[in-house]
Amino acid sequence: MRELLVKPGHELLDLIEQGEIDHAELQEAQYQFARGIDERVNAFISWDEEVEHQEWRLPMVDQDLPRQFHRLPYAAKDIFTTKGLQTTAGSRILKGYVPPYDASCVSHLRHAKNHLMGKTNLDEFAMGSSGEMSAYGVTRNPWDFDYVPGGSSSGSAVAVAACQSVMALGTDTGGSVRQPASFCGIVGYRPTYGMISRYGLIAYSSSCDQAGIFARDTLDVALTMNTVSKPDERDSTCQATGDIDFYTDTQRDVHWNKLRVGVIKPLMDSARIDAPVLTNFQASLKAMTDAGAEIVELDFPLVDYYLAAYYIIVCAECSSNLARYDGIRYGIVSDDEDLLARYRSVRSRGFGAEVKRRILLGTYVLSAGYYDAYYDRARQLRRDVREQLEAMFTKVDVLATPTSPVLPFKIGEHIQDPVQMYLSDLCTVFINLAGTGGINIPNGFGERDGAKLPTGIQFVCAPFRDNLLLRIGHQFEQLTGWKYQPPQWVLDELNA
Ligand code: GLN
Question: Which element (helix H / strand E) includes 384?
Fold first, then answer.
């Protein structure tokens, strides 16, 4: 059974439906494998010990639904609340917190009889780009253990890349699904804001946060979207209709010769983008032009400003969202009698350095006298980003950029230099400011100090054109003959 764990979910589902394999055995094999190798990569924070859920054995009740992510094992970033299962957001402050309810997308997956194996590691409260900011230890890149897997959804990316899980949920506030997917060589999709309910996602920056999906190919992403993209009255920003069959739609043809692919000139500049990343990006563009696509060069004058605007907005929102961690309602406590002393004790012990830095920065930009100078200007810039993107989408059907300006970096390399860390989000955050969708598709490998590390191309759609985005992602995979192959040590373990 183990050797099957490298297959994408839709192929496993075929085997289950044809009666070739038993899904309970598959789940057991997946769970044992994931646990067995986790000490090497540290992708998981906690495990669901109860593998014997009887309800998995039942078929779906509603047979009229389009094809679903169904009866398969998966993992979720430890920022999705899960009933009865510890949820920490990667923070010491929430250690031991067991939510009494499921996030909406977790409950949809549960209803579809999938097995949530455990909760994956992340940068504390999803703040970070490297997987080094967790209170539960550093997560390692399965392609080379000395390198970061990207972040903040580091554990979810690694779980899929190291065949510990068929699919994993993450969240993407500024790139935290697409960038780690690129660093780990798998597919990572952030839908248009509102396509998946945020109910039960622990908030970082509510206006940018969005759940996303890691998988081995775009079809698995589409399969999962059929299960999790549903209307939800508990999230007033949720705009999912539930009536798109992403799985069927994704397999429809893209006529490359009718497709206009926009490339953003400043994001192809060798001063901003590392050489191996750029080489693979150019090769991807060539594959698309050879297939008939028209490449349209676009300018993006805001490229030097939006990163600053993003960090002002997310810090402002996090300083407000994280005020609820007061040591009274959730997580760790203090027995100080004095209220202020209690706050101080819990927050100084509970929050890590990066979270504290952002709360301070956020409080500063929201304070009287600085509000207009920083926060308001950042919001104005956000509107301008949205307008410039709208203008681009009158000229092209889709945008393509490198997903990350750099190859994965070494563990510890940027830890003392937050600004350098923030710069690695250059290609992803403008999408979150505009509220639109993006996907990372692997497009090769680059070399750094003798290590072979993955790269990715990012496609970006106009808001709510996500079905076109997935279709293009799927066709791009066909074009380049993409099929996920894990690192050799994982293959050896699978075949041991
Ligand atoms: N690296 C970005 C940040 O730290 C993105 C985080 C995210 O998408 N959750 O804000």
Answer: helix 377-392
C-alpha–C-alpha distance, residues 6 and 480, integer Å: 19
Using most ligand atoms within 8 A of CB, pick from 124, 130, 134, 152 the residue to mutate for ligand 1.
Answer: 152
- What ligand 1 atom has the least distance to the C-alpha of 424? 1
- Residue 286 falls in the annotated catalytic set: no
Measured by CA distance, the residue closest to atom 2 of ligand 1 is: 174
Q: How far apart are CA 155 and CA 120, in angstroms?
A: 5
Residue 51 pLDDT exceeds 60? no
Distance (Å) of CA 169 to CA 86, 228, 262, 438: 16, 10, 29, 15
User: What distances in angstroms separate CA 495 from CA 33, 42, 158, 298, 492, one per listed residue?
Assistant: 11, 21, 19, 47, 5
pLDDT value at 61 more than 90: no
- Which is the closest atom of ligand 1 to the Cα of 153? 9
**Ligand 1 within 6 A of 174 CB?**
yes
pTM of model > 0.90? yes
Per residue in 266-296, pLDDT (tens digit) is 999 999 999 999 999 999 999 999 999 999 9
Let me know if 77 is a catalytic residue: yes
CATH code of the domain occupying 2-256+436-495: 3.90.1300.10
State pLDDT tens for residues 134-162: 999 999 999 999 999 999 999 999 999 99
Query: 425 in ligand 1 pocket by Cβ < 6 Å?
Result: yes
Weakest-pLDDT range from 236-240, 336-340, 407-411? 336-340
Does the CB atom of residue 118 touch ligand 1 within 6 A?
no
Residue 238 has pLDDT above 70, yes or no: yes
Q: What mean pLDDT do residues 65-80 have?
A: 95
Residue nearest to atom 10 of ligand 1 (CA): 127
Query: From the candidates 104, 134, 176, 205, which is the catalytic residue?
Result: 176
Residue spans per domain, the chain: 2-256+436-495, 304-381
Phi, psi dihedral angles at 167 (to 5 degrees): -145, 155
